Protein backbone atom coordinates (compact mmCIF):
# COMPACT_ATOMS: atom_id res chain seq x y z
CA UNK A 1 0.00 0.00 0.00
CA UNK A 2 1.08 3.56 -0.65
CA UNK A 3 2.61 5.29 2.36
CA UNK A 4 1.32 8.85 2.72
CA UNK A 5 3.01 10.93 5.42
CA UNK A 6 1.73 14.11 7.03
CA UNK A 7 4.62 15.89 8.74
CA UNK A 8 3.22 18.44 11.17
CA UNK A 9 5.79 21.17 11.71
CA UNK A 10 7.66 20.55 8.48
CA UNK A 11 9.43 23.93 8.69
CA UNK A 12 11.24 23.03 11.93
CA UNK A 13 14.48 21.18 12.63
CA UNK A 14 12.87 17.81 13.19
CA UNK A 15 10.10 18.10 10.61
CA UNK A 16 12.29 19.27 7.74
CA UNK A 17 14.87 16.53 8.25
CA UNK A 18 12.10 13.94 8.56
CA UNK A 19 10.39 15.15 5.39
CA UNK A 20 13.61 14.86 3.41
CA UNK A 21 14.19 11.27 4.58
CA UNK A 22 10.58 10.23 3.88
CA UNK A 23 10.73 11.65 0.36
CA UNK A 24 14.08 9.95 -0.27
CA UNK A 25 12.48 6.64 0.73
CA UNK A 26 9.60 7.11 -1.69
CA UNK A 27 6.84 8.32 0.63
CA UNK A 28 4.23 10.77 -0.61
CA UNK A 29 4.89 13.52 1.93
CA UNK A 30 2.79 16.50 2.96
CA UNK A 31 4.31 19.21 5.14
CA UNK A 32 1.86 21.07 7.36
CA UNK A 33 2.75 24.38 8.98
CA UNK A 34 1.41 27.89 9.34
CA UNK A 35 4.09 28.91 6.85
CA UNK A 36 4.95 25.69 5.02
CA UNK A 37 8.45 24.80 3.93
CA UNK A 38 8.70 25.18 0.16
CA UNK A 39 12.47 24.57 -0.10
CA UNK A 40 12.32 20.76 0.09
CA UNK A 41 11.95 19.13 -3.32
CA UNK A 42 8.78 17.05 -3.69
CA UNK A 43 7.37 18.10 -0.30
CA UNK A 44 3.71 19.01 -0.75
CA UNK A 45 3.05 22.12 1.39
CA UNK A 46 -0.10 22.39 3.49
CA UNK A 47 -0.84 25.74 5.15
CA UNK A 48 -3.05 25.43 8.23
CA UNK A 49 -3.56 26.75 11.76
CA UNK A 50 -3.57 23.86 14.22
CA UNK A 51 -5.62 25.93 16.66
CA UNK A 52 -8.51 26.12 14.18
CA UNK A 53 -10.49 23.06 13.17
CA UNK A 54 -12.03 25.04 10.31
CA UNK A 55 -8.55 25.85 8.98
CA UNK A 56 -7.49 22.21 9.28
CA UNK A 57 -10.64 20.87 7.63
CA UNK A 58 -10.17 23.22 4.70
CA UNK A 59 -6.47 22.39 4.34
CA UNK A 60 -6.89 18.63 4.68
CA UNK A 61 -9.58 18.24 2.02
CA UNK A 62 -8.59 15.35 -0.25
CA UNK A 63 -5.53 14.48 1.90
CA UNK A 64 -5.71 11.04 3.52
CA UNK A 65 -2.45 10.33 5.35
CA UNK A 66 -1.53 6.84 6.47
CA UNK A 67 1.11 8.10 8.91
CA UNK A 68 1.10 11.33 10.92
CA UNK A 69 4.28 12.74 12.48
CA UNK A 70 3.70 15.55 15.00
CA UNK A 71 6.94 17.51 15.46
CA UNK A 72 5.74 20.98 16.48
CA UNK A 73 4.60 22.94 19.52
CA UNK A 74 3.89 26.56 20.50
CA UNK A 75 5.58 28.19 23.49
CA UNK A 76 3.27 30.06 25.89
CA UNK A 77 3.84 32.25 28.94
CA UNK A 78 2.81 29.64 31.51
CA UNK A 79 2.73 25.86 31.66
CA UNK A 80 -1.04 25.97 32.04
CA UNK A 81 -1.23 27.79 28.70
CA UNK A 82 1.34 25.41 27.19
CA UNK A 83 -0.95 22.56 28.16
CA UNK A 84 -4.08 24.21 26.83
CA UNK A 85 -2.64 25.30 23.50
CA UNK A 86 -0.43 22.33 22.67
CA UNK A 87 -2.96 19.67 23.61
CA UNK A 88 -5.58 21.55 21.57
CA UNK A 89 -3.33 21.45 18.49
CA UNK A 90 -2.98 17.67 18.72
CA UNK A 91 -6.67 17.16 19.49
CA UNK A 92 -7.84 19.38 16.61
CA UNK A 93 -5.62 17.62 14.10
CA UNK A 94 -6.60 14.09 15.09
CA UNK A 95 -10.31 14.97 15.28
CA UNK A 96 -10.21 16.44 11.76
CA UNK A 97 -8.46 13.31 10.46
CA UNK A 98 -10.75 10.91 12.34
CA UNK A 99 -13.64 10.66 9.82
CA UNK A 100 -11.29 9.64 7.00
CA UNK A 101 -10.18 6.46 8.80
CA UNK A 102 -6.95 6.54 6.79
CA UNK A 103 -4.48 6.98 9.66
CA UNK A 104 -2.56 3.84 10.59
CA UNK A 105 0.09 5.35 12.88
CA UNK A 106 0.71 8.61 14.75
CA UNK A 107 4.18 9.56 16.00
CA UNK A 108 4.61 12.37 18.53
CA UNK A 109 7.93 14.08 19.27
CA UNK A 110 8.31 15.43 22.80
CA UNK A 111 11.63 15.47 24.70
CA UNK A 112 13.55 15.09 27.94
CA UNK A 113 11.35 17.62 29.71
CA UNK A 114 9.20 14.52 30.14
CA UNK A 115 11.76 13.55 32.83
CA UNK A 116 13.19 16.94 33.85
CA UNK A 117 9.97 18.92 34.19
CA UNK A 118 8.44 21.79 32.21
CA UNK A 119 9.99 25.22 31.75
CA UNK A 120 8.56 26.62 35.00
CA UNK A 121 10.15 23.85 37.08
CA UNK A 122 12.92 22.70 34.77
CA UNK A 123 15.64 20.61 36.44
CA UNK A 124 14.75 21.94 39.88
CA UNK A 125 15.29 20.13 43.16
CA UNK A 126 12.48 17.74 43.92
CA UNK A 127 11.78 16.92 40.27
CA UNK A 128 15.11 15.50 39.12
CA UNK A 129 15.22 11.89 37.93
CA UNK A 130 18.08 9.43 38.27
CA UNK A 131 20.18 9.54 35.10
CA UNK A 132 20.53 8.12 32.56
CA UNK A 133 16.83 8.70 32.03
CA UNK A 134 14.81 5.67 30.96
CA UNK A 135 11.39 5.34 29.39
CA UNK A 136 10.16 3.35 32.38
CA UNK A 137 10.46 6.36 34.69
CA UNK A 138 7.01 7.42 35.91
CA UNK A 139 5.61 10.83 35.06
CA UNK A 140 6.57 13.60 37.46
CA UNK A 141 3.87 14.79 39.82
CA UNK A 142 3.69 18.14 38.08
CA UNK A 143 1.77 19.57 35.13
CA UNK A 144 3.59 19.12 31.84
CA UNK A 145 2.35 19.84 28.32
CA UNK A 146 4.20 16.80 27.00
CA UNK A 147 1.95 14.61 29.13
CA UNK A 148 -1.12 16.42 27.82
CA UNK A 149 -0.02 15.90 24.21
CA UNK A 150 0.61 12.21 24.84
CA UNK A 151 -2.84 11.82 26.39
CA UNK A 152 -4.47 13.32 23.29
CA UNK A 153 -2.68 10.77 21.11
CA UNK A 154 -3.67 7.89 23.41
CA UNK A 155 -7.33 8.97 23.42
CA UNK A 156 -7.47 9.33 19.63
CA UNK A 157 -5.75 5.97 19.14
CA UNK A 158 -8.34 4.33 21.38
CA UNK A 159 -11.12 6.00 19.37
CA UNK A 160 -9.77 5.43 15.85
CA UNK A 161 -7.71 2.27 16.18
CA UNK A 162 -4.33 3.51 14.94
CA UNK A 163 -0.97 2.63 16.49
CA UNK A 164 1.31 5.27 18.01
CA UNK A 165 4.86 6.00 19.10
CA UNK A 166 6.31 8.70 21.36
CA UNK A 167 9.85 9.98 20.75
CA UNK A 168 11.89 11.78 23.41
CA UNK A 169 15.04 13.40 22.00
CA UNK A 170 17.58 15.35 24.00
CA UNK A 171 18.76 18.66 22.50
CA UNK A 172 18.10 18.39 18.75
CA UNK A 173 20.97 19.47 16.48
CA UNK A 174 20.05 20.48 12.94
CA UNK A 175 19.27 23.39 10.63
CA UNK A 176 16.15 25.53 10.82
CA UNK A 177 15.39 29.24 10.71
CA UNK A 178 12.98 30.75 13.21
CA UNK A 179 13.11 27.68 15.46
CA UNK A 180 12.50 28.18 19.18
CA UNK A 181 14.95 25.51 20.39
CA UNK A 182 18.09 25.53 18.27
CA UNK A 183 21.32 25.02 20.19
CA UNK A 184 23.50 24.08 17.21
CA UNK A 185 22.74 27.21 15.20
CA UNK A 186 22.82 29.35 18.35
CA UNK A 187 26.36 28.22 19.11
CA UNK A 188 27.37 28.73 15.46
CA UNK A 189 26.09 32.30 15.55
CA UNK A 190 27.79 32.94 18.89
CA UNK A 191 31.11 31.57 17.61
CA UNK A 192 30.79 33.67 14.43
CA UNK A 193 30.28 36.81 16.52
CA UNK A 194 33.28 35.88 18.68
CA UNK A 195 35.31 35.43 15.50
CA UNK A 196 34.23 38.82 14.19
CA UNK A 197 34.86 40.70 17.46
CA UNK A 198 37.82 38.70 18.84
CA UNK A 199 35.76 37.88 21.94
CA UNK A 200 36.45 34.56 23.67
CA UNK A 201 34.00 31.75 22.99
CA UNK A 202 32.98 31.45 26.62
CA UNK A 203 31.02 28.49 27.97
CA UNK A 204 27.72 29.94 29.19
CA UNK A 205 26.52 27.12 31.43
CA UNK A 206 26.95 25.41 34.78
CA UNK A 207 29.78 23.41 36.31
CA UNK A 208 27.60 20.30 36.32
CA UNK A 209 27.12 20.56 32.58
CA UNK A 210 30.75 21.49 31.90
CA UNK A 211 32.13 18.50 33.79
CA UNK A 212 29.28 15.99 33.55
CA UNK A 213 28.33 13.53 30.86
CA UNK A 214 25.79 14.65 28.27
CA UNK A 215 24.33 13.66 24.93
CA UNK A 216 22.39 15.27 22.08
CA UNK A 217 20.14 14.16 19.23
CA UNK A 218 21.05 14.73 15.60
CA UNK A 219 17.87 15.63 13.69
CA UNK A 220 18.80 13.03 11.11
CA UNK A 221 18.93 10.18 13.64
CA UNK A 222 15.62 11.32 15.12
CA UNK A 223 14.10 11.13 11.64
CA UNK A 224 15.47 7.60 11.25
CA UNK A 225 13.85 6.49 14.50
CA UNK A 226 10.52 8.09 13.63
CA UNK A 227 10.34 6.15 10.37
CA UNK A 228 11.59 2.94 12.01
CA UNK A 229 8.95 3.06 14.75
CA UNK A 230 6.18 3.90 12.30
CA UNK A 231 7.00 0.89 10.12
CA UNK A 232 8.13 -1.69 12.70
CA UNK A 233 5.35 -3.64 14.37
CA UNK A 234 7.40 -4.39 17.49
CA UNK A 235 7.88 -0.66 18.05
CA UNK A 236 4.19 0.26 17.93
CA UNK A 237 2.40 1.67 20.98
CA UNK A 238 5.61 2.48 22.83
CA UNK A 239 7.69 5.46 23.90
CA UNK A 240 11.36 5.74 22.98
CA UNK A 241 14.28 7.88 24.00
CA UNK A 242 16.42 8.96 21.06
CA UNK A 243 19.96 10.36 21.12
CA UNK A 244 23.07 9.92 18.99
CA UNK A 245 24.01 6.81 20.97
CA UNK A 246 27.18 8.12 22.60
CA UNK A 247 28.07 10.53 25.39
CA UNK A 248 30.51 13.42 25.74
CA UNK A 249 31.58 16.13 28.16
CA UNK A 250 31.25 19.79 27.28
CA UNK A 251 34.74 20.36 28.73
CA UNK A 252 35.98 18.42 25.70
CA UNK A 253 33.45 19.34 23.01
CA UNK A 254 33.57 23.10 23.70
CA UNK A 255 37.21 23.27 22.57
CA UNK A 256 36.39 21.19 19.49
CA UNK A 257 33.67 23.65 18.48
CA UNK A 258 35.94 26.64 19.09
CA UNK A 259 38.68 25.10 16.95
CA UNK A 260 36.27 24.64 14.03
CA UNK A 261 35.68 28.40 14.00
CA UNK A 262 39.26 29.31 14.87
CA UNK A 263 38.27 31.21 18.01
CA UNK A 264 39.67 31.25 21.53
CA UNK A 265 37.72 28.97 23.88
CA UNK A 266 37.04 29.91 27.50
CA UNK A 267 35.75 27.16 29.76
CA UNK A 268 33.64 27.22 32.89
CA UNK A 269 35.15 29.74 35.32
CA UNK A 270 32.92 29.11 38.32
CA UNK A 271 30.12 31.40 37.12
CA UNK A 272 27.25 30.94 34.70
CA UNK A 273 27.39 33.50 31.86
CA UNK A 274 23.99 33.31 30.10
CA UNK A 275 24.02 33.63 26.34
CA UNK A 276 20.88 35.76 26.56
CA UNK A 277 23.05 38.38 28.27
CA UNK A 278 26.08 37.74 26.06
CA UNK A 279 24.10 38.23 22.84
CA UNK A 280 21.61 40.80 24.12
CA UNK A 281 23.17 43.74 22.30
CA UNK A 282 24.46 41.92 19.21
CA UNK A 283 21.41 42.31 16.97
CA UNK A 284 22.81 45.39 15.17
CA UNK A 285 26.23 43.73 14.87
CA UNK A 286 24.69 40.64 13.25
CA UNK A 287 22.84 42.85 10.79
CA UNK A 288 26.17 44.47 9.86
CA UNK A 289 27.78 41.05 9.50
CA UNK A 290 24.91 39.88 7.30
CA UNK A 291 25.51 42.81 4.96
CA UNK A 292 29.29 42.38 5.04
CA UNK A 293 29.26 38.64 4.32
CA UNK A 294 26.06 38.53 2.21
CA UNK A 295 24.21 36.34 4.72
CA UNK A 296 20.61 35.34 4.06
CA UNK A 297 19.22 36.05 7.54
CA UNK A 298 20.04 39.44 9.11
CA UNK A 299 17.78 38.93 12.15
CA UNK A 300 19.81 37.42 14.98
CA UNK A 301 16.67 36.28 16.79
CA UNK A 302 15.60 34.19 13.79
CA UNK A 303 18.76 32.12 14.09
CA UNK A 304 19.72 32.09 17.77
CA UNK A 305 17.54 30.80 20.62
CA UNK A 306 19.80 31.81 23.49
CA UNK A 307 17.12 31.25 26.14
CA UNK A 308 16.87 27.55 25.30
CA UNK A 309 20.63 27.02 25.07
CA UNK A 310 20.92 28.65 28.50
CA UNK A 311 18.22 26.31 29.82
CA UNK A 312 20.08 23.23 28.62
CA UNK A 313 23.62 24.27 29.49
CA UNK A 314 22.65 25.78 32.85
CA UNK A 315 21.20 22.59 34.33
CA UNK A 316 22.46 21.66 37.81
CA UNK A 317 22.99 17.98 36.96
CA UNK A 318 24.54 15.96 34.17
CA UNK A 319 21.87 14.62 31.83
CA UNK A 320 22.23 11.59 29.63
CA UNK A 321 19.79 9.20 28.05
CA UNK A 322 19.43 5.43 28.06
CA UNK A 323 18.92 4.03 24.55
CA UNK A 324 18.56 0.34 25.45
CA UNK A 325 14.86 0.01 24.70
CA UNK A 326 14.93 0.80 20.98
CA UNK A 327 18.28 -0.96 20.53
CA UNK A 328 16.81 -4.17 21.90
CA UNK A 329 14.04 -3.89 19.29
CA UNK A 330 16.51 -3.44 16.43
CA UNK A 331 17.12 0.32 16.09
CA UNK A 332 20.93 0.41 15.93
CA UNK A 333 21.63 3.72 14.15
CA UNK A 334 24.54 5.71 15.62
CA UNK A 335 25.77 9.25 15.05
CA UNK A 336 29.04 10.88 16.14
CA UNK A 337 28.18 14.05 18.07
CA UNK A 338 31.20 16.07 16.97
CA UNK A 339 30.21 15.31 13.37
CA UNK A 340 26.63 16.43 14.13
CA UNK A 341 27.90 19.90 15.01
CA UNK A 342 30.54 20.07 12.29
CA UNK A 343 28.08 18.93 9.60
CA UNK A 344 25.61 21.58 10.75
CA UNK A 345 28.24 24.32 10.78
CA UNK A 346 29.33 23.41 7.26
CA UNK A 347 25.72 23.43 6.06
CA UNK A 348 25.05 26.82 7.67
CA UNK A 349 28.15 28.24 5.99
CA UNK A 350 27.33 26.71 2.63
CA UNK A 351 23.81 28.15 2.75
CA UNK A 352 25.14 31.58 3.76
CA UNK A 353 23.56 31.63 7.19
CA UNK A 354 26.88 32.17 8.96
CA UNK A 355 30.08 33.73 7.54
Automatic annotation (TrEMBL):
SUPFAM superfamilies: NAD(P)-binding Rossmann-fold domains. Residues 47-355 form the PRISE-like Rossmann-fold domain. It comes from the Bacteria. InterPro entries: NAD(P)-bd_dom_sf, PRISE-like_Rossmann-fold. It holds the Pfam family PRISE. This is Iridoid synthase. It comes from Adhaeribacter pallidiroseus.
Amino acid sequence: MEKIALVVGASGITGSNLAEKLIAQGWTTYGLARNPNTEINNLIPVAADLLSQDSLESAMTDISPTHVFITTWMRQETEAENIRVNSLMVRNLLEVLSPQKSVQHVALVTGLKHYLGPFEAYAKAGTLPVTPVREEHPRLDIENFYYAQEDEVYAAAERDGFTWSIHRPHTVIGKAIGNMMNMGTTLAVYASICQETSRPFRFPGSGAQWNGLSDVTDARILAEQLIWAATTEAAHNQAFNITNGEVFRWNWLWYQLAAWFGVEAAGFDGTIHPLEVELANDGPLWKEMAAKYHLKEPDLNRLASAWHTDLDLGRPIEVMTDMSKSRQLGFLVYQDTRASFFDLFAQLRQEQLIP
